[in-house]
Amino acid sequence: MSLLKIIPKIIYKDVQIGVNLFAALGFETKYAEEGFYIMAREGVTIQLVASEEDFHVYDRPEMRIDTNDIEGYYAEISSKHPEILHPNLKVIKNQPWGLREFAVLDETTVCIIIQQAI
User: How crowded is residue 41: how many other Cβ atoms within 10 Å of its Cβ?
Assistant: First the structure.
């Protein structure tokens, strides 16, 4: 047996905010029904769920997407959607833990760190 990937689920009161964020990151909607979306890009899948409960207030996730071309992905995001770059990590930075990283942030504070091993 092999574990192959994690498929995170993010809860939003307004799920369209998440759809917009991941569309800006180049993800395509693979499935959609009222309040539920599955989006994917290059084998990375995410689920976005609407909830009228307070889950969206207290559970603002942070996740990481691993890439083998951080420069190319950064160029794509920074040219098409610079407004989503995280103010604390809006350029590629070499981290002491052996990763190159930049991050994006949506208006509800969902943070996605894009990383590549140094």
Answer: 15
Q: What does DSSP say about strands 9-12 and 44-50: parallel, antiparallel, or unpaired? A: parallel
Q: pLDDT per residue over 46-67, tens digit each?
A: 999 898 777 656 667 778 898 9
- Under CATH, which number does the domain 9-117 receive? 3.10.180.10
* Cα(69)–Cα(63) distance, integer angstroms: 18
- Dump pLDDT digits (tens) for 75-89: 999 999 999 999 999
Question: For the chain, which residues make up each domain, given as ranges?
Answer: 9-117
pTM of the predicted model as reported, rounded to 2 decimal places: 0.77
Centre a 10 Å sphere on the Cβ of residue 50 and count the other Cβ atoms it contains.
Answer: 17
Amino acid (one-letter) located at 34: E
Dihedral Cα 91, 101, 66, 112, nearest 10 deg: -70
